[in-house]
Every structure is written in structure tokens, then in C-alpha cells.
Recover the amino acids of this structure.
């Protein structure tokens, strides 16, 4: 390391502020900056994420009123499970934050090599619901490998692209795409279209930031379109899937849940519930549709409807703004990252979260097709919550190591 | 990070901002910029249901407070009728084994077409505790089978009074359409008799619970709104249960006696026992119109209907000889026979064609000469009534002389034919005054019956001719005249006159109470708990003037009929000095051709096809009133195909009077003697 020039020379006009400035001052023999990562944890991000998760717990409680009554479960059945997952998730977040992300430059093939087989195994020993075969039952919790696989793709593709930064030619691009496509294909075999699209989305984001050329971008788009066309043409989508897409295109009012129009009904109920909330909402625990279980899957995929009905426009907007703050902190971490790998990891996580938030909230409001993906930190579902907290851990990891 | 990458990360940031903006915009349009009230209404309608529960039906008591109809809670077994194939097979097999009933019985109930297929089929009632426990403890072994607790109607006296009480059944689509918001698809409704007539009182108001439900139809949380409903009102009848039971016992005894009596009359070829297919009786309070007893036999047990009868059982009840479901006390249409002579006698006096003291020559036959045609109307056996000698109105009534009344009918026809229709129709007008040919106004179902006159005959024959019925079709002009024979037959309660026991009882009550035509009634009081909601007052429908002379003569004639006339034998030994009974027997011919078994004699003209097909034995009638001088009760007994009025109906009525006046004459019920072997008077 070469000796640093005096501060006034390096930073004319005092362009640097905050922690960066303190580090520089310390390196110059000053007293304030501390290069140790723990001194630079993004506590703001941690607090917002935990706040959203807590709101999630409250909404899970509110939305499981009818389902616990009907199935004669304890009123706290779902809340306790979600709280347990939250605790495990905080530990996971600490672990992924503590483990220096730069070591993944070498270790990403190992991560990838562990997660991909899980996706295969789950096909044969896993259980499923709503047309998917996606998880292992482990005690009271369910483990859904595709949630971890999203992170694995971020680490693997991010790691590969970092290794070849600035020289992403057609061949290397093909390798990167293949790395992602294997996981996506296996996810598709589980009939989990939503998760596959999330994986695709984060892969595209990472490749884009890595310097994807315009011509490659067009080729990739055409490729994705033809794969999608092939899947539809060969009937690889089961009816369940197509019906959901159809109901998105054809949003007419339906009054009863018959087998034939379950999804349309679901969407109708969802929109009605959100609209029912109005400006200020019906009040927590007071939403008629929510409390009476009118919106199917309302504690998992459709939990946003409960937020809409019970907390109203004000509450739902607050939640979206909190998500926006999270996105901002992740984006900021991407920008301030000490190296390009950190940037790619943060962009990957940002893409996963934003894609899911937009898709999930969008489908409950009828502006996106219905796919079975949860609302991050809020929806009931242990492995997803743990995976997102782990992903936030990676962002914190990148953010706090920007000086070391 | 290169500057290039920095730009691209920034672009990603812009995209993120755009996506969040899209979500917020959509949220705004969905939640704030929309008519939230419309949605709220839709939400409310969808998530709320009202569940109804039937309230307990009112009880029915007799005039002394004896419970005749009540409710009882019992366990029943039901099967979902929508089951098909294996599921149904399985359910039937298991239930058949458990209940030890043949599979066919269960299948029959499952396939009953009279109830909606959406409704569960009731398989067993009063399920024993062991069976109930067995099913509820092994629910998985008995799928599609439900054990439920229901309140059912209970009739502790079984078939007694059944024709008055009626029965209940499940509502059908027709009922639901008629009373839209009052009944649920599983509710019960009165189907006949008082159960039907007093439906509004007995039913009460159903309870309801408004609840929140989820899309699966499951109830969530506590009810939003509750309506406790109201139990049905209790009904207190004018019926005296003890008397009612005596009436039924006496009718049965009379039927039994008739059935072992040989009949000379109906079939000329040989001796046949009277069939005595059915019987009815009415006991009326002549002063108020209260019905103290009303019976119709054969009867049925209304409790059979409580849980629904099967198709086969229903058909069986319908086809059974005597039609148990038919209340013949109010609905039968019988020729009144000689009991109608009261009306003819009154008509004669009212129209001044015959004074009470004027006598006629007592012959066996009455001869009518119209133009070149001569028709003979004869007493049975063509013998003079009660021996030779002149007959006045008193003796004509007590001895039941047909000849005497034939002549009145003929004379009145002559007056009618001469153009004085007002006077000429005296019999018809008097009959109508006394309530014949119109409904009495009693609470339960009844028929108006018929008082025939020239207009009726014209309308009837022409209607039949238009419908193509032989022999009217084509030559209706030969049939549409009101002939002397028609009026002559009417004078003795034959021909086309029909009446029900209740109408006859009411006519005699009117005459004996001094001319007040009352509305007979069965319901004395309706109570809501201890509070009397409605009390029936005697209702005089018409006040008639009964000429004193006629009244005295007729009452004397009817007293003599019991003490020394056609009913003398039936009342032999009855303490008439303590309870003075007046009465009139009747032996009404159901068939114009006495030898019904034989072919219609060549060349003879039937009065009409309805007379030919109705080929039955004589109807045995008796109308009694006591005490004759200060009338309290009218007793009418009718036994179809029972033979002579004096032989069967009168002894039955005697037993009823013995029960009515047991406190004055002692608790003796005189057995009905076997009739003597004779022709006798009608």
C-alpha cells in the first residue's frame, strides 16, 4: 500500500463524508475511523427488515383466524412457527454476514454443488401443495430448497461474473446462463414458475451489471421467449398454471368459487379485499374478508390483501415504503461496495427481493399474473423467511466490509 | 467498480423506483380512488348467512285439557340421497345389518320420489341408544350416515280423532313457493285436518341466527344477530276425548254387527253380508255449534306421517277400502235418505201444500201419472207403512212413510211446473236454508254437496254432454228436464241430493234450537302460553223462522220415531223418561237399481250414469237429538253399506247418548243387537 496523500489533496472540497472520511482521517493518524467490519454494520437495514418481519408476524396472526378455527388448530399455531423461523433467520443473517463474502470467489462452485442436488432430491421425497412439489418436511417446519437455490444462483453467477469481469464474451455468458438455467430448469420441474422467474430475473440483473452487451441482451431475450413458447406449445405447463395466467388476462367478476374458476375467484376476492380497506383500512383484526377467510392462501401468497383490507392505503403504502427503504439500502450497499463481487451480490439480492415484492403485491392487485411466490418477510413460510434474512446478511456482509 | 457498472447499477435503481411507483399507483386506484361503499356492500352480502331453525309446533288439547297432540324429541338416522353407486350400496349394506331391516326397505326410502333429492332420506326413527352410540363412535365405518336429534309430532291416542287432526309432512317446492320466507326446505307443514287448517297458529315463528361464514360454508365466530323465534300456539278443541273414544268404539261395534248381518235387499239373487265399508259420526252441541266428537272410520295413525310415509304405504292408504285418509264426516256425499224428510216436512208446511194434520191414504206405493206415463214409487216390499190407516205428518215421520213424502214432492213439482217456481222449489229452498248445498264453515276441509233443482239438472246434463259423456252426449234434450220423479225422489232424500253427516247434524241442530243456523266449530281457544289469543264464540249464520205448528208436529213425530217408530227397537230399554231422545232413521239407497249385481233390465231408463256406477249397499243413517224438548246435543251416525238405519246407525247413536248422559242414566252402554231378519222400513 502506498502512502496516502494528505486528505485535502485526495478529497478536494471535502467530498468524502461520514465513515469513509473517518477511515481516511484515521489512516492519516487521526482518531475516529475503525476498519473493523462490525463498526460498519448497516443497522438501519437490520431494523427495517426486522420491523417488516414483525409486521409479518402480526399479519400472519390476523390472517389465520379462520383457518385455525376451521382446522381446529391453536390460534397461535402459525405465529409460533413463523416466530421460530424468524429466530433461525436472524441467526442465518448473522452467519452470512460474518462469513467474508470474498471467500465465495473460490467457494461458489461448492455452494452450487450442494444446493443443486437438493433440488433434484426434493422431486422424489418432497411434499407439495397447489401443483408444486417443492419442500422437505423437517419437524414443524418445511424446508424449501428452491428458496436457498435463489441465493445459490446469486453467489454462483455473481462469483463467475466477478471472476471474468470486463471480459464477458459470448462463451462466458453461455456458461453463466447455463449455471442459472440448470437451477431454473429444476425449479420448473417442481412446477414452481414463480421462483423460476425470480431466478431468471436476478440472473439477468447480475449479467446486466456485469456488462452484458446489447446484442447479447437481445439474443437472451429471444432465447427466453422461445423457451417460454416451447413450454406452452408442448403443454409443459399444467392446466393449473395456464389457468392462473388466463385469469390474469381475463379479469371478470366472479361470485362463487367453483372448481372451474377458482383462480379468477381468488383474484376477485383479493382485489375486493384490498379495495374494502379504503384509505385507512378496516382496522387490524377487523377485516371482514380477511377474518372470515374469504381470500384463499391469505396467510401465505395473498397476505398483502390482508394488509390492504385491515391497514388500508396508509398501511399498505407504509409497508411498500419500508420495502423501498430496504431496496435503497441494498442498492446503496451495491454502490459503496469495496469490490465488484460485492456489487453483484447486492444487485442479485436486490433483484430477488424487488422482483418478488412487485410480483406478489402486483398479483394481489391484478396487475401481475398469479404465481405462487411469497411476499418477502411478511408471508407465512419458514424457509423463505430464513432465506431472505440470509440474503440481507450477505448485503450487510458487503456493506460492512467496504473498508477492510 | 467501473464507471460503466456504476451507470448500470444506477439504471437498476431507477427500475426499482419505477416498480414501486407502479405498485403505489395501483394501490391508490384500488383503495382510494374507487367507490368503496359498493365493495363494502358486496362484501357484506357475501360473508353473511342466516340460518333458520323450526320452532316447536303448538300442542292440541281436548275441551277438558287432555293432551291429544304433543311433540317429542327423538333420534333419527338419515342418509344423503345424492349418494350413488358404491357409496349408496355401502351405506345401505351397513345400515341394513345394523338396524336389522331388509335392504329393500332402505332402498325404497332412498328412492322416494316425493321428497327433493337434495333432502336426506329418513331411514329410522326412535333410534335405540346402542345403535346411535355405535354409529357415532365409528363414524369412519358409517360414512354418509347421519344421526340427528329431531322434534317429532306425537299422537298419544293414535288413530283416534285422526281425520279431524290430520297429519303433517315435509314442505315441498309448492309450499316453499307459496310461503317464501316462512319455511325452510326441511320444515314440517300441516297436510290435512286441523294440522293444516291451523298451520299459522300451530307453527309459530321460526328462530334464526345470522352468522358469518367463510367460502367453504363454515360458520365463523359468534352469531351477528339472533331471533329466538316463537313456539307455536296451543289449540284447545271443543272435542271431548272420552266421548270421541266412545263414538269410535260404537262405530266399530256397529260395523262389526253389520258385517255379520245378511242382506236381502241389494242383491235379489242371494243373501250377502253387509259390507259396512266405512262409517262416520258427528256429535254437535245444538246450542252453540261446538263439535264434541267427530269420527271417520277406517282411520289411520297420524304418527306414520311424522317421519314421512313411503310411496308404497301412501298408495296402500289411498287404495285401502274405505279410504282412511278421507274424512267422511265432513267430506262424504251421501244421499240423506229418510233423514231428509225433516226438510220435506218443513217445506210442505212453509209452502202450504200440506198441513201437519192432513192425512193421506196409507198405501204401499205412490203412483204418479204424467201424460200417458205412469210411474210407481213404492215402499220396500210395496207394503203400507206401519199397517193400514190414514197418515198425518207426525206418523209419517215416526213410521218413515215414503208414500206421504213422495206425494209432497209430486205436488210441489206440479206447482213448479205450473210456473210458481218460488213455491215449487220449497224443498230445495228449505234445504238450502238449513245449510244443505253449502259449506258449514267448519275449520277443516269439507264439501258443499248438492241440492238438485231444475237449473242444476240443466247445467249438469249440458256440461256432461259437452264433455262427451254418454248418454247425455248427442241427445241432451232428453235428459235436461226436471221431471216429477226428480222432485219425488228428492222429497225422501234420494235422487241427486247429497249431504255429509256434518251438514245433516247442523240442519237438525238448526231446527231444534229454534232456527239458528250455526257455524259448527272444532277450535274452542287458541293460547299462547297462558294467554288466550283467540276464543271462538258461537256464530249464528242465519236465523230462520220455524212455524210453531210445524215444530210441534215434527218434534212429536221424531220423538215417536224413537219411542214407537222406526228406531223403537234400537232404543228399547233406554230411559226416555229421563232423557227424551227424538230422532230419525234413514236407509239411503246408493243405487237406482236394487239388483245391482244383475244387468240393467232391458228397456229401463237409468236416471243418469252416476247412479249406475255407484252400485253400493244402502247407507245406514240415524240423527238423534236430546233432550227433545230442550235440545242440547245432535248425534249423527252414518254407516256406509250398513243396511237399515234403525238396525245399525240407531243403536250406535244410542250408545253415544248413553255416554253423553251417563251422569243422568248411569254408566251403561247397551251392546248393539243383531238385526232381525226382515225387510223393514227405510
Amino acid at each position: 500500500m502506498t502512502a496516502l496523500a494528505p486528505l485535502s489533496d485526495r478529497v478536494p472540497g471535502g467530498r468524502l463524508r461520514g465513515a469513509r472520511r473517518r477511515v481516511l482521517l484515521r489512516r492519516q493518524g487521526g482518531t475516529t475511523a475503525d476498519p473493523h467490519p462490525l463498526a460498519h454494520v448497516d443497522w438501519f437495514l437490520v431494523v427495517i427488515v426486522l420491523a417488516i418481519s414483525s409486521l409479518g408476524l402480526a399479519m400472519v396472526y390476523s390472517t389465520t383466524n379462520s383457518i385455525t378455527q376451521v382446522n381446529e388448530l391453536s390460534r397461535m399455531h402459525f405465529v409460533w412457527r413463523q416466530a421460530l423461523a424468524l429466530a433461525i433467520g436472524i441467526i442465518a443473517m448473522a452467519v452470512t454476514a460474518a462469513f467474508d463474502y470474498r471467500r465465495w470467489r473460490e467457494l461458489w462452485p461448492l455452494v452450487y454443488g450442494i444446493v443443486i442436488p437438493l433440488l433434484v432430491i426434493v422431486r422424489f421425497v418432497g411434499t407439495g401443495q397447489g401443483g408444486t412439489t417443492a419442500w422437505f418436511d423437517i419437524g414443524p417446519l418445511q424446508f424449501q430448497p428452491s428458496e436457498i437455490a435463489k441465493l445459490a444462483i446469486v453467489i454462483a453467477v455473481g462469483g463467475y461474473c466477478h471472476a471474468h469481469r470486463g471480459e464477458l464474451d459470448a462463451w462466458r455468458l453461455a456458461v453463466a446462463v447455463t449455471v442459472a438455467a440448470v437451477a431454473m430448469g429444476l425449479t420448473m420441474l417442481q412446477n414452481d414458475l414463480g421462483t423460476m422467474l425470480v431466478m431468471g430475473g436476478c440472473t439477468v440483473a447480475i449479467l446486466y451489471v456485469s456488462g452484458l452487451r446489447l446484442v447479447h441482451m437481445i439474443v437472451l431475450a429471444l432465447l427466453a421467449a422461445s423457451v417460454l413458447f416451447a413450454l406452452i406449445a408442448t403443454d409443459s405447463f399444467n392446466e393449473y398454471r395456464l389457468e392462473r395466467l388466463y385469469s390474469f388476462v381475463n379479469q371478470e367478476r366472479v361470485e362463487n368459487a367453483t372448481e372451474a374458476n377458482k383462480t379468477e375467484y381468488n383474484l376477485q376476492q383479493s382485489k375486493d379485499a384490498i379495495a374494502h380497506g379504503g384509505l385507512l383500512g378496516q382496522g387490524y383484526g377487523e377485516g371482514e374478508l380477511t377474518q372470515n377467510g374469504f381470500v384463499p392462501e391469505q396467510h401465505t401468497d395473498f397476505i398483502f390483501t390482508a394488509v390492504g383490507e385491515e391497514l388500508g392505503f396508509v398501511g399498505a403504502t407504509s409497508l411498500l415504503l419500508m420495502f423501498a427503504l430496504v431496496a435503497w439500502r441494498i442498492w446503496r450497499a451495491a454502490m459503496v461496495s469495496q469490490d465488484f463481487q460485492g456489487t453483484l451480490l447486492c444487485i442479485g439480492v436486490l433483484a430477488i427481493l424487488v422482483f418478488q415484492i412487485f410480483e406478489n403485491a402486483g398479483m394481489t392487485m391484478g396487475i401481475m399474473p398469479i404465481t405462487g411466490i411469497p411476499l418477502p418477510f411478511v408471508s407465512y413460510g419458514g424457509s423463505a423467511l430464513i432465506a431472505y434474512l440470509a440474503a440481507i446478511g450477505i448485503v450487510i456482509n458487503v456493506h460492512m466490509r467496504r473498508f477492510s | 467498480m467501473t464507471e460503466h457498472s456504476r451507470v448500470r447499477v444506477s439504471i437498476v435503481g431507477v427500475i426499482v423506483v419505477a416498480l414501486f411507483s407502479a405498485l403505489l399507483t395501483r394501490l391508490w386506484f384500488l383503495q382510494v380512488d374507487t367507490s368503496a361503499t359498493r365493495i363494502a356492500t358486496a362484501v357484506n352480502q357475501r360473508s353473511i348467512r342466516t340460518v333458520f331453525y323450526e320452532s316447536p309446533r303448538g300442542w292440541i288439547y281436548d275441551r277438558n285439557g287432555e293432551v291429544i297432540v304433543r311433540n317429542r324429541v327423538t333420534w333419527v338416522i338419515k342418509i344423503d340421497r345424492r349418494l350413488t353407486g358404491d357409496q349408496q350400496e355401502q351405506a345401505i349394506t351397513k345400515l341394513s345389518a345394523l338396524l336389522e331391516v331388509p335392504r329393500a326397505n332402505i332402498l325404497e326410502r332412498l328412492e322416494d320420489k316425493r321428497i327433493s333429492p337434495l333432502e336426506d332420506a329418513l331411514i329410522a326413527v326412535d333410534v335405540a341408544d346402542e345403535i346411535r352410540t355405535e354409529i357415532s363412535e365409528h363414524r369412519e365405518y358409517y360414512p354418509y350416515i347421519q344421526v340427528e336429534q329431531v322434534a317429532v309430532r306425537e299422537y298419544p291416542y293414535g288413530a283416534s280423532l285422526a281425520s279431524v287432526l290430520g297429519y303433517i309432512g315435509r314442505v315441498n317446492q309448492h309450499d316453499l313457493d307459496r310461503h317464501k320466507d316462512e319455511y325452510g326446505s326441511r320444515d314440517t307443514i300441516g297436510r290435512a285436518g286441523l294440522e293444516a287448517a291451523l298451520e299459522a297458529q300451530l307453527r309459530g315463528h321460526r328462530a334464526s341466527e345470522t352468522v358469518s361464514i367463510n367460502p367453504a360454508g363454515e360458520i365463523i365466530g359468534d352469531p351477528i344477530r339472533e331471533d329466538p323465534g316463537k313456539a307455536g300456539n296451543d289449540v284447545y278443541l271443543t272435542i271431548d276425548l272420552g266421548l270421541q273414544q266412545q263414538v269410535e268404539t260404537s262405530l266399530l261395534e256397529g260395523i262389526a254387527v253389520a258385517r255379520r248381518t245378511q242382506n236381502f235387499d241389494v242383491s235379489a239373487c242371494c243373501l250377502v253380508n253387509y259390507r259396512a265399508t266405512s262409517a262416520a259420526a258427528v256429535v254437535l252441541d245444538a246450542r252453540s255449534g261446538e263439535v264434541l266428537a267427530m269420527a271417520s272410520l277406517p282411520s289411520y295413525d297420524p304418527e306414520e306421517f311424522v317421519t314421512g310415509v313411503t310411496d308404497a304405504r301412501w298408495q296402500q292408504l289411498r287404495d285401502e277400502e274405505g279410504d282412511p285418509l278421507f274424512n267422511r264426516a265432513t267430506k262424504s256425499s251421501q244421499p240423506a235418505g229418510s233423514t231428509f224428510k225433516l226438510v220435506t216436512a218443513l217445506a210442505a208446511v212453509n209452502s202450504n201444500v200440506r198441513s201437519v194434520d192432513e192425512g193421506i191414504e196409507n198405501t204401499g206405493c205412490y203412483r204418479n201419472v204424467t201424460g200417458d206415463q205412469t210411474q210407481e214409487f213404492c215402499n220396500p216390499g210395496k207394503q203400507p207403512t206401519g199397517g193400514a190407516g190414514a197418515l198425518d205428518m207426525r206418523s209419517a215421520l215416526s213410521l218413515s212413510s215414503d208414500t206421504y213424502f213422495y206425494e209432497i214432492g209430486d205436488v210441489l213439482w206440479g206447482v213448479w211446473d205450473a210456473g210458481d217456481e218460488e213455491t215449487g222449489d220449497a224443498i230445495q229452498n228449505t234445504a238450502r236454508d238449513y245449510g244443505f248445498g253449502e259449506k258449514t264453515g267448519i275449520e277443516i276441509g269439507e264439501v258443499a254437496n248438492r241440492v238438485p233443482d231444475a237449473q242444476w239438472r240443466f247445467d249438469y246434463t249440458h256440461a256432461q254432454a259437452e264433455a262427451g259423456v254418454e248418454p247425455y252426449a248427442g241427445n241432451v234434450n232428453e235428459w235436461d228436464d226436471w221431471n216429477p220423479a226428480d222432485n219425488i225422489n228428492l222429497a225422501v232424500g234420494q235422487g241427486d241430493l247429497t249431504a255429509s253427516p256434518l251438514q245433516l247434524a247442523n240442519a237438525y241442530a238448526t231446527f231444534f234450537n229454534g232456527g239458528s243456523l250455526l257455524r259448527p266449530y272444532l277450535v274452542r281457544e287458541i293460547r299462547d302460553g297462558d294467554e288466550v289469543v283467540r276464543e271462538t264464540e258461537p256464530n249464528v249464520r242465519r236465523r230462520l223462522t220455524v212455524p210453531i205448528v210445524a215444530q210441534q208436529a215434527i218434534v212429536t213425530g221424531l220423538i215417536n220415531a224413537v219411542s214407537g217408530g222406526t228406531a223403537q227397537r234400537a232404543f228399547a230399554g233406554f230411559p226416555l223418561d229421563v232423557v227424551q231422545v227424538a230422532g230419525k232413521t234413514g236407509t239411503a239407497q246408493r243405487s237406482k237399481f236394487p239388483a245391482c249385481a244383475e244387468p240393467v233390465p232391458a228397456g229401463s231408463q237409468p236416471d243418469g250414469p252416476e247412479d249406475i256406477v255407484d252400485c253400493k249397499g244402502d247407507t245406514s243413517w240415524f240423527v238423534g237429538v236430546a233432550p227433545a224438548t230442550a235440545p242440547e246435543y245432535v248425534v249423527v251416525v252414518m254407516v256406509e253399506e250398513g243396511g237399515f238405519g234403525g238396525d245399525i246407525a240407531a243403536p250406535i247413536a244410542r250408545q253415544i247418548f248413553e255416554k253423553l248422559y251417563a251422569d243422568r242414566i248411569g254408566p251403561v252402554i247397551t251392546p248393539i243387537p243383531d238385526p232381525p231378519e226382515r225387510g223393514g222400513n227405510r
About this structure: The first strand of chain B starts at residue 48 and ends at 53. Chain B has three domains: 3-34, 51-237, 241-665. Confidence is low (pLDDT under 50) at residues 592-614 of chain B. Residues 489 and 495 of chain B are 5 Å apart (CA to CA).
